[in-house]
Amino acid sequence: MKLGRHIFGVGVMTGISRIFGFVRDMLIARFLGAGRLSDIFLAAFKLPNLFRDLLGEGALSAIFIPMYTDMKKDEGFAKNVFSWLMVVLLGITIIFEIFMPLVIWALAPGFSEDPGKMQLTVTIARIMFFYVIFICGAAFLSAVLNAHSRFLLAAFMPVMLNIMLIMALVASIWYGNSIILYVMAGTVVLSGVIQFLVLWGRIRSKHFGLRLIVPRWNNQIKSMFKRFCVSLVGSGFYQITIIVGTLVASFESGAVSWLYYSDRIVQLPFAMIGLAVGTVLMSSISNALADKNMRSVYIQQNSSMRRSMMLIIPCVVGLFVLAEPIIRFLFQYGAWTPESTHAVAMAIKIQCLVLPAMLISQIYSKTLYASQDVTTPVKTSIISLGVASVIYLALFPFIGYLSIPVGVVISGYVKNYLLRRVCNKRGLIKTDKKTFISMAAFALISGALGGALMALNISNIWVLGLAIGGFGILYLPTAYIVDRKIIK
Asked: Is 448 or 239 the better-scoring residue by pLDDT?
């Protein structure tokens, strides 16, 4: 499989999705403001997003793809899992439609002070929750395509939601704000339906034989549900840690916003590179392990490690050096103060240091998932997130909100160490000496160019763009040539 090509393709699609998501957020702020309408939409949208994260995306693929591959892509197993998933999603949807007033009260109890606001949120949430059935179903169809090494269409699907919401928001110029929430809720559901149908059509055209059947409870399904529940525990701890970080930061005025914007910036390169690597490796390593071809596993790990570190290390250097001008020229308008710019930039300078650990952890964790070990990644996540929470609480009295990015960095490297130790013990990973030499070379080249960037006087956004572009033009061919020389 053309590993680099697939990683590049998925990364590009993820980047496009993030860009449209950024445009979507700006338009929501423009048309809904930061008041009653935006509160209602964001609170209602939180539910389907939560279920998409828990049921539809990483967890489902991480469990299904290795089992499906190990069974030589058995159509009967895929049909049974698909049918059970639809039954479970239908049941969840019925329960939440009935108890939605209670759910919204639990999520946003402050809305009860405005009965009209609470009732409208319940109505919008009921409409939007049907999205869960289609988007989780689409995530399963994406997993099937990924297992057959077809990545691009599945990677493009998240773009569709953002494009359709942008169109709905722009169209509100004509239909006004009176029905905008209903239009947006309907648009969310419609995007889920379209994503599902597009992926379903692609699967049928490839003759993968996937269709709904009467679900059967057997040992395979029992094993999958057990592993899935374990994976959900890890996802639950992740959500708890985010809540802890937000609670701690809330004791310092402005800190929650500073950390939100710094996280958005730092997560962009990880989404484009790290998630792309994880998506492709899950399928390719599962295939190699099913064939008991450990040499192929090691080659893919080293190749993806070199390629991804070639891209992520200059991102770390660039963010560290250019954090302040990036935030200043993107956000320092209107009520945004220079103090806020500096605060966000400081958080970025710390948090960006975790990117290499996060990316390599993706390689280790996907290898473990591909070997059908669900428990170890969850255990390491719980330990690392526990470490992060302790650091948040211990350092906050001394360095304030910066304790959050410090905790993220330290816990990220703790998780990386734990995952690598387990992979080493089981013979699941073997990192070549040449890979370490390449990574050191990438760091030296990036550091030299970063030093040059520090000497520049970045006076406006155009100079910033030229500086970033020039960094890339000089770095990428140099790093590629050096890497080629090293691995010969």
From this structure: 448
